[in-house]
Amino acid sequence: MTETLHETRLVVNGVPRTVRVPARRLLADCLRVDLGLTGTHLGCEHGVCGACTVLVDGQPMRSCLMFAVSADGAEITTTEGCRAPDGGLGPVQQAFQECHGLQCGFCTPGFITTITAYLRDNPAPSEAEAREAIGGNLCRCTGYQNIVKSVLRAAEIQGEVVP
Amino acid sequence: MKPPVFEYHRPETVDEALSVLAEAGTDGKVLAGGQSLVPVLNMRLAAPRHLVDINRLADLAYVRSGPDGVRIGALARHAEVERDGPAHAAVPLLRQALENVAHPTIRNRGTTVGSIVHADPSGEAPAVLTLLGGSMKLARAGSTRTVPAAEFFVAPLESALRPGELAVEAYFPRPPDRSGTAWREVSRRHGDYALCGVGVLVTLDDDLRVAAARAAFISVGPTPVLVDLTDAVAGQQYDAVDWSAAATLARDRIEPEDDIHATASYRAHLAGVLLGRAGAEAAGRAAA
Known about the structure:
The structure holds two protein chains of two kinds.
Chain A (H helix, E strand, L loop, with lengths): L4 E8 L2 E8 L4 H8 L18 E4 L2 E4 L12 E3 L13 H8 L9 H14 L5 H7 L11 H17 L2
Parallel strand pairs in A: 1-5
Antiparallel strand pairs in A: 1-2, 3-4, 3-5
Chain B lengths: L6 E3 L4 H11 L3 E4 L5 H6 L7 E4 L9 E4 L2 E5 L4 H6 L1 H6 L2 H6 L5 H4 L4 H7 L5 H9 L2 E6 L2 E6 H4 E3 L2 E2 L6 E8 L5 E9 L6 E11 L5 E9 L6 E4 L1 H4 L10 H10 L10 H24 L1
Parallel strand pairs in B: 1-3, 2-3
Antiparallel strand pairs in B: 4-5, 5-10, 6-7, 6-10, 8-9, 11-12, 12-13, 13-14
Helix pairs in contact in B: 7-8, 11-12
């Protein structure tokens, strides 16, 4: 059968985009397949691993647990959108590089988006709070130690750039 | 791991949603936060023909607190309920329990009413509704009915909601004066489903002795298990309650099962330990 396509407007990383997608197209697949933004990764596809986390109107959400059509009209931020204004590494991305917060890198996009939103609301977390903030994201390589360091380092970097 | 084909409906008003649901009948399914439904679709454990997305029904995105308690609309996200100051003041158990629901990212999207309708015996929200003696407002085209929590949860993942109905509101009554509540649960990993969990409500008399106490347990029965503990603890000073008789009473009522995560006897053990801890905390809050 031919599936009905739904015209869906999204603002992705500040850029208005219009896609025509079947209703069952997950937001994650829409970003990757329809919009070519392959930074967002799909791990478990049932909401457990956190790799696909993107910001929907600023709030971290699982893009594997949302239909693109449901996000019609929303502003989406992916890991590509967490860059610095000059196109270089954003504070969280830079901290991950400095602290070796990634190894294989598969889970990293979900951490970057989750931590970006967390630090916006909590600019100076303790180590325990940093650990709590990433509790919903799985990493199978690092053992999390360097990711916790990355959260704290990102907070430092942000503190330096904020006037 | 991709959802099956379905026909998508995105009503702009509650009336429109009810007429679509009436037409879809048993083939219709409501999509709110989708944090339980979408995994089920991704794994193809269900294949509804019509999905009715209620995310545009902004009228239902409310948390209203008043002297009699808190009313939560179908589109209020867990995170909104959790953060709501007046709701926390009126019914503290909401925040106490909801901060145990999965992870913050899930709570940003998942709805409290959706979690109740999902009727998972491991769910926190169904147990809160049960413990406080709340109710659900269910609408269908042309009529509305109110179902008390005691009649709403029928079996695992099965509620009293009928085809064509939309759960529009959950009502959580404010506990009586000089009451305290607490929530405790144990899970294998941070954010996982609880192996066992319990919410406790303790009400004291004017001499700070226990006048009434009850508990609602999760993950140890087909639905939330409500146990009246008053006979086991009544008359005891709030800070010196012996919860062991209450634990015995509760263990007789729960029906834990073995699975890969825990044995039935370990869950029963947890029920007693968590009851003691939550009970002491609730009694302390009642006296404060």
